[in-house]
Design brief:
It is a single chain. This protein has helices at 2-6, 9-38, 41-58, 67-71, 75-111, 123-142, 146-169, 174-207, 210-219, 222-248, 251-288, 294-327, 332-350, 352-360, 364-388, 391-427. The protein is mainly α. The protein has one domain. Helix 2 packs antiparallel against helix 11 (251-288) and helix 5 packs antiparallel against helix 6 (123-142). Residues 1-6 have low confidence and may be disordered.
Length: 432
């Protein structure tokens, strides 16, 4: 069983996604040394603030219903959940226009950064394209269209990198960073949407009905009730540092943090995203067949831990020197941040299989409780550390909170996997 799971299509699909994502990340890595010299840490700090506002909307814009697409037992159910998710995305994108019109200036006054006022009007487009791409990617995962997903990832990274470098060369500042992100996101979304429009839409129209969407919205209500609040709370991992570091210290510090965050996001995207998608599809398949999940969970989690061990050790020892050499002396302090953040992100990387088993094993309520328990430390640790110490202590304390959350997530899911296994064994007929 273990060999069947971890050989053949499982690893082949991971390789297809990972190879495309690897090329995308190579493009990003090649662009970073240029971007670091075209833009200042302060500009990256304001860009991070825009990204935080965008993420706040994106994580709720689909009601998290897209997570039910892979879990659907029939193609008809999956198609109706897809339509439901995209409909919610469109509605939230339209509502965001009115939210910006009514409260945008007041929010920027509160934060003290009116420099972003003109860019706020791009948020609805970002919400629409980001979330629609997220939903369509889950549909493509169910259909095992991994080459299409790889093409989308490559196009997005190329578009973002090329547009941001071009904007930096003509001195556009933070506007160029935001517009470059929008350009690349639209490119990636168009490619993943083309599969649906060209091949799937005619057959989907025959099975999608309002009645089916209403029925499935009620059936999968745990996703908006529990998974959506959890995702919103989880997004504070990104949004809270960007906002609080800007307010408590400066956009310069927020820019250093954002840069380090983005660098550690690369390995998560490189292998983590590929593993996450394929693991989720395979785990859901095993669950529906009534098979044990222990082997695939332990092997995948252990493999990710082994993969990340050496890079973590190197960065703990030498991150400031490596950052200064690669990106310039201005970014040495970001390397100091990295010595702490890498431990948190390593645990985040290792916990990816556990995260994907949350919807499979219907653990949304337990996961939400874990997020709530982590919320207070996540909000309080940066102001507390800023009051009694310096920014390095603040980053270290925040990293410890992040590490703890992902560690306890693995423990929670491991217990649920054992419970599932025990239930399967109890249901087996006793030998005569």
């Amino acid at each position: 069983m273990a060999l069947r799971i971890l050989r053949g299509p499982f690893l082949k699909n991971i390789a297809v996604l990972a190879s495309g994502t690897a090329l995308a990340q190579v493009l990003t890595v090649l662009a970073y040394p240029i971007l670091m010299r075209l833009f200042t840490p302060d500009q990256f700090g304001l860009f991070a603030l825009f990204g935080a506002l965008n993420m706040t909307f994106v994580v709720v814009a689909s009601g998290r219903y897209e997570l039910a697409i892979v879990m659907a037992k029939t193609e008809q159910e999956a198609a109706n959940i897809l339509a439901l998710s995209l409909g919610i995305v469109a509605a939230v994108s339209i509502l965001s226009v009115f939210a910006i019109w009514g409260f945008g200036d007041a929010l920027l006054d509160l934060l003290g950064y009116q420099e972003l006022s003109g860019l706020l009007w791009f948020l609805p487009l970002m919400i629409l394209t980001n979330t629609a791409s997220q939903v369509l990617s889950v549909w493509a995962t169910r259909q095992q269209l991994y080459k299409r997903l790889s093409m989308s990832t490559i196009s997005r990274s190329f578009g973002v990198a090329a547009a941001q470098v071009a904007a930096g060369m003509v001195g556009m500042g933070v506007d160029g960073l935001v517009l470059g992100l929008i350009f690349g996101t639209v490119m990636g979304t168009v490619i993943v949407a083309w599969q649906l429009i060209r091949y799937d839409l005619p057959s989907l129209r025959q099975v999608i009905t309002r009645e089916n969407m209403r029925r499935l919205a009620a059936k999968h209500r745990d996703f908006p009730l529990y998974s959506m609040p959890q995702a919103l709370l989880s997004s504070t991992t990104v949004t809270v540092p960007s906002i609080l570091l800007t307010a408590l210290f400066s956009p310069y510090v927020a820019g250093l943090y954002w840069f380090t965050y983005r660098l550690f996001e690369m390995p998560i995207t490189l292998l983590g995203d590929a593993t996450r998608r394929v693991f989720y599809q395979r785990a859901a398949e095993l669950f529906h067949k009534g098979e044990d999940l222990t082997t695939i969970f332990v092997r995948t989690t252990g493999g990710l831990a082994a993969m990340v061990a050496l890079p973590v050790l190197v960065l703990i020892v030498a991150a400031p020197t490596l950052y200064a050499f690669a990106f310039g002396e201005t970014w040495r302090e970001a390397g100091v941040f990295a010595q702490w953040i890498v431990v948190w992100w390593a645990m985040r990387f290792i916990s990816l299989p556990a995260l994907m088993l949350v919807p499979v094993l219907n653990l949304q309520r337990r996961f939400l409780v874990l997020e709530i328990l982590t919320l207070i430390p996540r909000f309080m640790v940066l102001p507390a550390a800023a009051w009694v110490a310096n920014v390095d202590v603040a980053i270290a304390a925040y990293s410890v909170v992040g590490f703890s959350f992902h560690f306890f997530l693995v423990v929670l899911v491991w217990r649920a996997v054992r419970e599932h296994r025990a239930g399967l064994e109890a249901s087996q007929p006793s030998p005569a």
